[in-house]
Amino acid sequence: MSDGLPPPAEGELVFTVLLQSGERHQVGDTPYGTRRLIDISGGTFDGPRIAGSVLSGGLEFELGLSNGAMELEQIAVMRTTDGANIYMRTCGFAAAGDTTARFVPDIEVANSSRHAWLNTGKFAGIRTVNERQGTIELKIYDISTVAVREPKVQLRDPAGVANQPWTCASGSGSRGNSVLTANVTLGGSVNVGASKRGSRNIIPITGGRVSGRVNGIVVPGGADYQLSNGNTVLEARYSLQANDGEYILVRNCGPFGAMVPTFETRVNGPYAYLNENRYLSSDPGVGSGGVTLTFYERR
Fold first, then answer.
1. What Å distances lie between residue 203 and 58, 87, 196, 236, CA to CA?
2. Is CATH 3.40.640.10 the classification given to domain 8-142?
3. Tens-of-pLDDT digits for all 299 residues of the chain?
4. For labelling alongside 284, which of 1, 77, 179, 187 has CA 20 to 30 A away?
């Protein structure tokens, strides 16, 4: 919303989501700020026109900035009471000292569903975290008739800090030495169907092992959020935990034959070289209970 984000609560409440948070992982200071990763393990949502449950396969990426502000990215997978699957990705922020965050959701549901109005609405929301209860509340409002107030309040990133990317990385080159191999176990797929960007299929990540320059586990949580629109583009979001306790965020994207991973980990940690993001990925191969992937240096 390039004109600015109005106060969401001045709009009409569409639905409220109560997310149950699973594991919370303190990644540490990465190139973008202080990162915390939260696994979304379930929950419920309801409103005047829609209700249902929250499925596994979601993640929340919380980023604390040195000026006290917070940036937020979140992915949630939901199912309505009449069986329609929903993919919702949000981005948001909180000013220094704020206990709630404002966010903009981007929602995908099948065009054939009676909930297809979610594909074209203009929405914004408010996020509140209850650390003690392990819940995250999202209130989502229709703001199509709400004007942006003047004067506007502008939040700025700290100088000299890289912006976290919203889109997938791309790159070319040949494969060099292997860096690590991940055997990723998977849950049952959740098919959203044909929506505003194509056909979305979500495959939750349930665990696995990693070996090579990093040895440890694939942390349960996240998914491969596949999108087909003429060709299939994979976008897997998950994390690794090394045997020494360090966390590494993984985002592996692209069509078959051209997948490019990016990694995010602690800048002063033993795997900081992964933040350079000069790597290529194999296509997913058949693995025990899921898939196997090998990541390579890019030449």
1. 11, 12, 19, 9
2. no
3. 888 889 999 999 999 999 998 889 999 999 999 999 999 999 999 999 999 999 999 999 999 999 999 999 999 999 999 999 999 999 999 999 998 999 999 999 999 999 999 999 999 999 999 999 999 999 999 999 998 888 877 888 888 888 888 999 988 899 999 999 999 999 999 999 999 999 999 999 999 999 999 999 999 999 999 999 989 999 999 999 999 999 999 999 999 999 999 999 999 999 999 999 999 999 999 877 899 999 999 99
4. 77
Q: Do domains 8-142 and 175-298 have the same CATH topology?
A: yes
Tell me the C-alpha distance between 265 and 297, whole Å.
Answer: 17
Task: Name the amino acid, one letter, at 193.
Answer: G
Q: What is the pTM of this model?
A: 0.95
Q: Where are the domains of the chain?
A: 8-142, 175-298
Residue with tokens 């297809």: 116
